[in-house]
Design goal:
A hairpin with a 6-residue loop joins β5 and β6. This protein has six helices and six strands, in the order αββαβααβααββ.
């Protein structure tokens, strides 16, 4: 009779918990240590009784994030340094993950994670990586073409006859001028 009074007007959940029963689960809040299934059910019941449900952000939120990434991608095209663009895309992705986690924990609000993250990394990060790799490949290609010219030329006339056309060809310059420092070192003398 005493037990009946103890549990009156209460919800009682009874469950066997042991790892051998496979009734323990990883959750977003306990990925390192597994949570018993009965505790997950109890948390769900408490959420329903306290009227604290998970809610989704409005559909326009993901669209706004993707459009913001497109705008940032257009702006990042103007940034000459591809490394800065790449690091800024990784920083933006980190900020978005922190926002996603904060909204989930603090206000039980779920916002899309995968689509905006892919938008950030594919729209901003991938072109930055491509730009960085193509610049490095172009530098290596030009270095491979010009290095033999510089190392085999023994005199200035031989160097200018080979170097100036190679510079114009590799860099697509309309004009190339070679300046040599005067013996005193106080001025540059045009040689070709």
């Amino acid at each position: 009779d005493g037990w009946a009074e103890t549990f009156r007007d209460k919800i009682v959940l009874i469950g066997a918990t042991a790892e051998s029963l496979h009734d323990t689960y990883a959750t977003p809040f306990s990925s390192a240590s597994l949570t018993p299934g009965v505790e997950i059910v109890a948390a769900t019941v408490a959420m329903v009784l306290n009227d604290r449900f998970m809610q989704s952000a409005p559909p326009w939120f993901a669209t706004a994030v993707i459009l913001s990434c497109l705008l940032l991608a257009l702006l990042s095209v103007r940034i000459i340094n591809a490394r800065k663009t790449l690091w800024s895309s990784l920083a933006l992705a980190s900020v978005y993950v922190a926002l996603w986690y904060g909204l989930f924990v603090a206000w039980q609000t779920q916002i899309p994670l995968v689509t905006p993250m892919l938008a950030i990394l594919l729209i901003i990060g991938l072109p930055a990586i491509d730009n960085l790799l193509s610049r490095q490949a172009r530098f290596r290609r030009i270095h491979a073409r010009l290095n033999p010219l510089l190392s085999t030329a023994r005199e200035l006339d031989s160097l200018t006859g080979k170097l100036i056309p190679a510079l114009g060809e590799n860099f697509h310059f309309s004009n190339v001028e070679l300046l040599v420092r005067s013996p005193k070192g106080d001025q540059f003398i045009p040689t070709a």
